[in-house]
Specification:
Helices cover 22% and strands 51% of the residues. The longest helix has 31 residues. It has three helices and 13 strands. It is of the alpha+beta class and 267 residues long. InterPro entries: OMP/PagP_B-barrel (IPR011250). It comes from Kordia aestuariivivens.
């Protein structure tokens, strides 16, 4: 009897060791590589079973609905497109962020290019790097290219996530920058899948030389996703800014909490 109990305990320990040896990134790769199953047939059957509806002329109510829909969607997403310029860099001319509200004698820019790099770690076994290029060719719109790379020590596994985003800068106030963006993400290193991505974020310039930023990004890969949440504080020094804070990543079903530090430079 004792030998059976001992054997059962050893088997449980072995199973736990095998599962643990798989590592976080291998589990994430399995999740992100899953083949997507289409549910279009059930969706189409639901559409076919809908009733005929009312043939009465909607008239006035149709126009009211269109007006409300505009303000709830396009109006909120795009807002008023007042002209803006860029300061040379945040706090270059007093207490302000990136955008200038008025045409001033102080030097202003019509575009901005920024390069950023962040290193992060979660314990001793897990670390990564996030490299990003951001180019706003006009104050309203910009493109962003990024590469996020994860490393795991035991077992030695890597996972690369590359994105291309088009961002619309919805809030362009003196002390606040807010944006949303859409694009595509490619997951490499054996996953080799591409999916739709979207993101939102806001930067608040509190008082020279500090600012605070929060952002959320989700990339839909197969039936899973790569999620990124960042809560960062920045210290600005002319065209440089040093940042640090909390990074949360969800790769499929794998959650990773990490602390990161990095550097930004505005051209």
């Amino acid at each position: 009897m004792k030998s059976k109990i001992t054997l059962s305990i050893l088997l449980c320990c072995l199973a736990f060791s095998v599962a643990n040896a798989q590592g976080k990134l291998n589990k994430a790769k399995d999740d992100l590589s899953g083949s997507s199953s289409s549910t279009s047939s059930s969706s189409s059957s639901r559409n076919n079973n809908r009733g005929g509806g009312n043939d009465d002329d909607p008239g006035y109510f149709d126009s009211v609905f269109v007006e409300i829909a505009y303000h709830v969607t396009i109006g909120i997403l795009l807002g008023e497109m007042e002209p803006r310029y860029f300061y040379e860099y945040p706090y270059s001319d007093g207490s302000h962020g990136e955008y200038s509200l008025f045409t001033q004698d102080y030097p202003l820019k019509r575009s901005q290019f920024m390069i950023s790099n962040t290193v992060f770690a979660s314990g001793k076994e897990f670390y990564g790097n996030d490299f990003k290029l951001n180019f706003r060719f006009i104050p309203l719109v910009g493109v962003e290219v990024s590469h996020l790379h994860f490393f795991e020590q035991t077992p030695k596994v890597e996972l690369g996530v590359s994105s291309f985003m088009v961002n619309y800068y919805r809030i362009r106030e003196k002390n606040v920058t807010g944006y949303w963006g859409v694009g595509a993400t490619h997951v490499g290193n054996g996953v080799d899948e591409t999916g739709l991505a979207y993101q939102v974020g806001v930067d608040i310039y509190l008082n020279k030389p500090f600012s605070f930023g929060i952002s959320w990004k989700q990339s839909l890969i197969n039936e899973s996703s790569v999620d990124e949440f960042k809560l960062l504080a920045r210290y600005h020094r002319k065209r440089f800014s040093f940042h640090g804070g909390f990074n949360h990543y969800q790769l499929g079903s794998v959650n990773i909490n990490a602390m990161g530090i990095g550097l930004d430079y505005r051209f």
